[in-house]
Design brief:
Chain lengths: 112, 114
Amino acid sequence: RKEVEQDPGPFNVPEGATVAFNCTYSNSASQSFFWYRQDCRKEPKLLMSVYSSGNEDGRFTAQLNRASQYISLLIRDSKLSDSATYLCVVNIVTSNTGKLIFGQGTTLQVKP
Amino acid sequence: NAGVMQNPRHLVRRRGQEARLRCSPMKGHSHVYWYRQLPEEGLKFMVYLQKENIIDESGMPKERFSAEFPKEGPSILRIQQVVRGDSAAYFCASSPGMLKETQYFGPGTRLLVL
């Protein structure tokens, strides 16, 4: 079983649509959580951190459920520029190390 | 404040040659991480270094791969006797210091082994 699993893509949606991505993680040592965005296999860029209380940044809302080990990302009013691969990422932290574990990524294609 | 720098951006090697990938972290960052992204796959952790120390190399292949982060200069990921399966994008990330800090990624080095 993969440590971080994401919805299989691709998601093809029209402009203005609302789209939701889901992610589950298996390692209970996961301590912080993120959504990154990757365009055309360029470097991943941090989209937002994810907190249990939920957090919102403009059209983007992220949610974490620690009990279910589940992370979500909601994008409202999709723009063409939102087309990218969205990576669910957990930070595994132990006493002396920390590393990011990436999901496979979900591809979003927003069409006019 | 310059971001994470990586060079070269593209590297072509023939089987059996050596590849050296360099990473300069963001100013003020003392922690460096290397990740590899094989074609059609997600990013995979390779190694975590602080200045002059390897903290976690659990993701590094046991043979041919090594990494260092000297007191002065960039971090180096070295691949000896490259094989076609080493062809991938290699990303470096840095963070200021605390383990939970956000990691910022460089533009990556695309390695192609012929």
